[in-house]
Design brief:
This protein has 238 residues and is α/β, with parallel strands linked by helices. The chain has a single domain, classed as Alpha-Beta Complex (Spore Coat Polysaccharide Biosynthesis Protein SpsA, Chain A). It is 43% helix and 19% strand. The protein has 8 helices and 9 strands. Helix 1 links the parallel strand 1 and strand 2. The longest helix has 18 residues. It starts with a strand and ends with a helix.
Length: 238
């Protein structure tokens, strides 16, 4: 029996939601007999994101388990994910971006093909996996290359892709790990990876189908220096 919580961190995502909510409804219909809960965490959204989600919940709440957690100020994706995980109820917890760059069905494919096993309790989707199918821009490839080199220099992390937004965790340790998370911006994946390693949670990287979607909230000129600063803070606080 599938026992899954899916966390969608969102911030001003009205355009993407109009495209992906129908896809999410289809996913829920196909898995209606399974124990699946959806948790949207609105990270200080000021557009119609909350209204769209509330309408979606209202029209589907009789059939599906869907919740919206919201707060007034934009704190960061890491905080939104932390909030969602700490409020989740099911055995497996999937973090998924609302643009569906990776479809939630990817977890079901992993499970069906035996990639979710008893030897690991955390799974990271990896765009670097030899079996992954990736559709992205050259600029993102170049930026990703340099960011990975910086991570290798600063941290003892053997993973090939820490930044993919498609990750799976187990309820057995998630409360402890995520309650300790202090980095709430783009570098939170690094601190999370280090916390998992510190607590002896083994991570398995798995292949996926990943397609870049336009409308990213990351602004290169503004956010890259912030990300580098966050990495340095994490480096000297661990």
């Amino acid at each position: 029996m599938l026992d899954l919580s899916i966390i969608f961190p969102v911030f001003n995502e009205e355009k993407r939601l109009k495209k992906t909510l129908p896809l999410l409804k289809k996913f829920l219909r196909e898995n209606q007999k399974k124990n699946v809960e959806i948790i949207f965490v609105s990270d200080g959204s000021s557009d119609s994101t909350n209204t769209l989600i509330n309408k979606f919940i209202f029209s589907n709440s009789r059939k599906f388990k869907i919740r919206l957690i919201k707060y007034p100020n934009n704190i960061g994706k890491g905080y939104a994910i932390k909030t969602g995980v700490l409020n989740s109820k099911n055995k497996w917890i999937l973090i998924c971006d609302i643009d569906f760059s990776v479809h939630p069905n990817q977890f079901l494919k992993w499970k069906k093909t035996g990639k979710i096993d008893q030897n690991y309790t955390s799974y990271f989707g990896s765009r670097e996996h030899k079996s992954s199918i990736i559709k992205t821009s050259k600029l993102r490839v170049i930026l990703g290359f340099f960011f990975k080199r910086i991570i290798k220099l600063l941290f003892d992390i053997s993973l090939s892709d820490t930044q993919c937004g498609f990750k799976v965790f187990n309820k057995s340790y998630s409360q402890k790990i995520f309650s300790e998370l202090k980095s709430y911006r783009f570098a939170f994946d690094i601190e999370l990876t280090l916390l998992l390693k510190k607590n002896n949670v083994k991570i398995k990287e798995l292949p996926l189908y990943w397609s870049h979607k336009s409308g990213s909230k990351m602004k290169l000129i503004k956010d890259i220096p912030i990300m580098l600063y966050d990495l340095i803070i994490i480096k000297f606080s661990n």
